[in-house]
Amino acid sequence: MRFIDEVKIEVRAGNGGKGATSFRREKYIPKGGPNGGDGGRGGHVIFVASRDKNTLQELYLRKRLIAKNGESGKGSDCHGKNGDDIIIEVPIGTIVKDEDGHTLVDLAVAGSSYHLARGGEGGMGNARFATSTNRAPRYSQPGLEGEQGIRFLELKLMADVGLVGLPNAGKSTLLAHISNARPKIADYPFTTIKPMLGQVFMDDGDGFVVADIPGLIEGAHEGKGLGHRFLKHIERTAVLLHLVDAACEDGKPVPEQITEINGELEGYGETLVEKPRVLVFNKSDALLDAEREAIEAEVADSPYKVFFVSAVTGEGIKPLLWYIYDQVLQMRKRAIEEMRPTDYEE
């Protein structure tokens, strides 16, 4: 399945059915009166955020969502049938925008729903218009038109931790080591060509979700390479894991690797630059003591927490995970406090 995170679709809710103009006619009841029923409501188009979806592939292929119209009312006070709703499950983190690019809703919570287009109400039948002075109304209402328009969908993955770094820094290997994700791993750049999510389970039974973003290269925020269009998927994370190839297998010195990624995050915007970050030096098992000491000296003044790990041997992984887990718990606590009301009315 392709990873689709941006889609343009046409939505059209159903029109309401028209009300009926009808009169009760029975052999021994000369003044039966009006009995026209109401028309049915047009079908809605509804999105529901689901944990079972992780891409907008289904909507990319479908393109148009058109709900059924409501049926017309009938005699004998029969109400027309409502049009069937179209209910589509979308990934958690789906953002819906209108034609002008304004955000209509952010489906960031599992089970949350949104009406993309509401069906038109059915028209009232003539039985509704009967009064003491007008006992035989000969008119009814047409149904209202359903909402319609163009909607733009954008997916931002819901993850607690974002994994960034240059190609071949070992992000996929680390993700496979610490989580249940099984990304493709190979000895060439851009092994990861789409964001990968992995669930990390801690010893206390809780855990967090890590998002692996395709390797960044210089100029990524301007559209170069594979990672630029996926940077948005780490906007929601609590902390960024900046992975550095400590062995410098691609020939780039450690300071240059760090500076390059910092530049790309700054180029993307403040949403990423201001996030808490952890500097993780991978492939530490390949370092000599003197090489490790040299790197430690270079980052001694770094504002970030520093870890040396090996995604292959597992060296240093446990302390890193517990530190990240603590950062995630702090973010969750802050989120709860922000949602909690501070002023109470007596």
Elements, N to C (H/E): EEHEEEEEEEHEEEHHEHEH
- What is the overall pLDDT average? 82
Q: What's the total count of β strands? A: 14
Q: Helical stretch count?
A: 6
Name of the CATH first level of the largest domain: Alpha Beta
Radius of gyration: 29 Å
What fraction of residues sit in β-strands? Answer: 15-25%
What's the overall geometry? rod-shaped
List the domain count as a whole number. 2
Question: Which stretches of 5+ consecutive residues score pLDDT under 50?
Answer: 188-192, 217-227, 341-346
Category from helices, strands and their pairing:
alpha/beta
Superfamily (CATH H level) name of the largest domain: P-loop containing nucleotide triphosphate hydrolases
Helix content: 10-25%
Any idea what the CATH architecture of the largest domain is?
A: 3-Layer(aba) Sandwich
What name does CATH use for the topology of the largest domain? Rossmann fold
Give the biggest sheet.
6 strands, mixed
Strand order of the largest sheet: 10-11-9-12-13-14
The rounded distance between the terminal residues' Cα atoms is: 55 Å
Give the structure's gist in a few sentences.
Helix content is 19%, strand content 23%.
Structural summary, described in words:
It is a single chain. This protein has 346 residues and is an alpha/beta fold. It folds into two domains: 6-155, GTP1/OBG domain (Spo0b-associated Gtp-binding Protein, Chain: A, Distorted Sandwich), CATH 2.70.210.12; 161-339, P-loop containing nucleotide triphosphate hydrolases (Rossmann fold), CATH 3.40.50. Helices cover 19% and strands 23% of the residues. It contains six helices and 14 strands. The protein has helices spanning 57-62, 171-178, 254-268, 270-273, 289-298, 317-339; strands at 6-12, 45-50, 64-66, 86-91, 94-97, 103-107, 113-117, 148-155, 161-165, 196-201, 207-212, 239-245, 277-282, 305-308. The strands form three sheets. The chain has a six-stranded mixed β-sheet, sandwiched between helices. Strand 13 (277-282), helix 5 (289-298) and strand 14 form a beta-alpha-beta unit. The two termini are 55 Å apart. Residues 188-192, 217-227 and 341-346 have low confidence and may be disordered.
